[in-house]
Amino acid sequence: MTVIAAPLAVSLGDPSGIAPELIAEAWARREECGLAPFFVVGGANVLRAAAATRGIDLPIVPIEDPGEAASAFSDGLPVLGAQDCTPCFGSPAREGAELALHSLTRATELALSGKAGGVVTGPIAKSKLAQVGFTQPGQTEFLADACGLPHESAVMMLAGPSLRTVPLTVHEALAAVPALITRDLIERKTRIIASALARDFGLPAPRIAVTGLNPHAGEDGRMGREEIEVISPAIAALQAEDLSVTGPHPADALFAAHEREKFDVALCMYHDQALIPIKTLDFDQGVNVTLGLPIVRTSPDHGTAFGIAGKGMASAGAMIAAIRMAGECAARRAAGL
Fold first, then answer.
1. How many Å apart are CA 169 and CA 156, to the nearest integer?
2. Residue 293 contacts by C-beta under 8 Å, 6 or more apart in sequence?
3. Global pTM value
4. For the chain, which has fewer Cβ within 10 Å, the N-terminal or C-terminal residue?
5. 10 Å Cβ neighbour count for 244?
6. How many C-beta atoms surround the C-beta of residue 179 within 10 A?
7. Alpha-carbon distance 79 to 64, whole Å?
8. Could you give the domains of the chain?
9. CA–CA distances in Å: residue 83 to residues 86, 134, 248
10. What residues pair up with 288 in beta bridges, in sequence order?
11. What does the buried/exposed string (b/e) look like for 208-243 if buried means 16 or more CB atoms within 10 Å of the residue's CB?
12. Which helix (H) or strand (E) element contains residue 120?
């Protein structure tokens, strides 16, 4: 028997940014790109106006329940709820932040209740959301709080056609990173990665490459001892659990094409070590996936791009990839694979 996941909930993101127009294009290209049914929480007028900036005639189908989205999807973009604001692309305002927070909150609630197969989050402007009650550093932490989990249990993975990477430390000053790298952190995040790639990506024994912190992975202690004292012992402990973990690898060589064939995901020590290669290789198709949650969550790996919003310049590739990936992960969970 084929198990079909519930439709995906898409949060609008900041309505003054590029997310609404990219969501509209994703719906317009739904068949070409093989997208699972999805609906958007709020913002019908914003979505319609955003679509017009790209020359898309976007029919909106108001729905009162997520269960209506699948049957409505071929007729138009299903939109749940009447919450909206005045379209004003490129000029973020409090009204838009209130809509963005409502959309994110409701989409998350629907995923947690099982009425949505997962949530795809549009990019937000954190400074604007903070003015209307958003207290978390970002959407990943918001999702962790909503799921009742500590922030460190929500692991950010960047995924594209060429590469998957996970930053061990995320939005931290570079000077603070060495002290934050611990055996416990490496081991906990690696276990979450292994479990999530098996459950959501169909990789029962994922190959995880761990980078070093220092140039040349420390070169036997000549350029730093973190590899010897922290990273290598963590890898040994994980290998003892029969996880396929290798390293520490010199980060300057790990992402060459012939090396990428040898692993499924790279666990990197800090933000730029993980994000520079993925954005170099897969900028227009990069997806931010949150691992370790009881729900599926993806997001395009880019920001609000207020400077080009409403000008028809933004690529929809990452939004389409985020919706496609969420649909695939949700289908695997629904099937219990």
1. 10
2. 143, 144, 147, 149, 154
3. 0.95
4. N
5. 15
6. 10
7. 9
8. 8-152+293-335 (3.40.718.10), 155-278 (3.40.718.10)
9. 11, 18, 49
10. 158, 299
11. bbbbbbbeebbeeeeebebbeebbbebbebbeeeeb
12. strand 119-121
Gap between the Cα atoms of 278 and 265, Å rounded: 11
One digit per residue, pLDDT tens: the chain, 337 residues?
345 789 999 999 999 999 999 999 999 999 999 999 999 999 999 999 999 999 999 999 999 999 999 999 999 999 999 999 999 999 999 999 999 999 999 999 999 999 999 999 999 998 889 999 999 989 999 999 999 999 999 999 999 999 999 999 998 999 999 999 999 999 999 999 999 999 999 999 999 999 999 999 999 999 999 999 999 999 999 999 999 999 999 999 999 999 999 999 999 999 999 999 999 999 899 999 999 999 999 999 999 999 999 999 999 999 999 999 999 999 999 998 5
SS3 166: strand
Q: Which amino acid is at 159?
A: A
